[in-house]
């Protein structure tokens, strides 16, 4: 993994952290995703697998060529 890749991941992480701090600061303490059979748990896992897929794509040749960028803002 290159320094560029690490910097890109850090920027994405930091952007999400800032957004959560502004929009939903309670998420750091509620931890509802730990409760069995809840929508929060399902959405947490969905988001986590999406993040892993994003990192895998970014680290592949196709992801580098496509120029995948963070469009969350």
Structure description:
- The chain starts with a helix and ends in a 7-residue tail after the last helix.
- The chain is mainly alpha-helical and 73 residues long.
- It has helices at residues 3-23, 27-30, 39-59, 61-66.
- It has one domain.
- The mean pLDDT is 86.
Keywords:
single chain, about 70 residues, mainly alpha, about 70% helix, about 0% strand, flat, 4 helices
How are the SSEs ordered, and which strands pair?
Layout lengths: L2 H21 L3 H4 L8 H21 L1 H6 L7
Mean pLDDT: 86
Could you describe the largest sheet, including whether it forms a barrel? none
Low-confidence region ranges: none
The oligomeric status of these chains comes to: single chain
Order of helices and strands: HHHH
**Cα radius of gyration in angstroms:** 14 Å
Overall geometry: flat
Through-space gap between termini = 25 Å
**Strand tally, please?**
0
Strand content: under 5%
Domains counted in the coordinates: how many? 1
**Helical proportion, percent range:** over 70%
Structural class: mainly alpha
Brief account:
The chain has 73 residues and is an all-alpha fold. The protein is built from 4 helices and no strands. The protein has one domain.
């Amino acid at each position: 993994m290159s320094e560029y890749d690490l910097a890109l991941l850090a920027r994405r992480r930091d952007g999400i952290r800032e957004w959560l701090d502004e929009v939903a600061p309670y998420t750091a303490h509620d931890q509802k995703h730990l409760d069995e059979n809840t929508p929060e748990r399902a959405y947490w896992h969905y988001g986590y697998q999406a993040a892993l897929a994003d990192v895998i794509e970014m680290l592949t040749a196709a992801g580098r060529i496509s120029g995948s960028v963070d469009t969350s803002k």
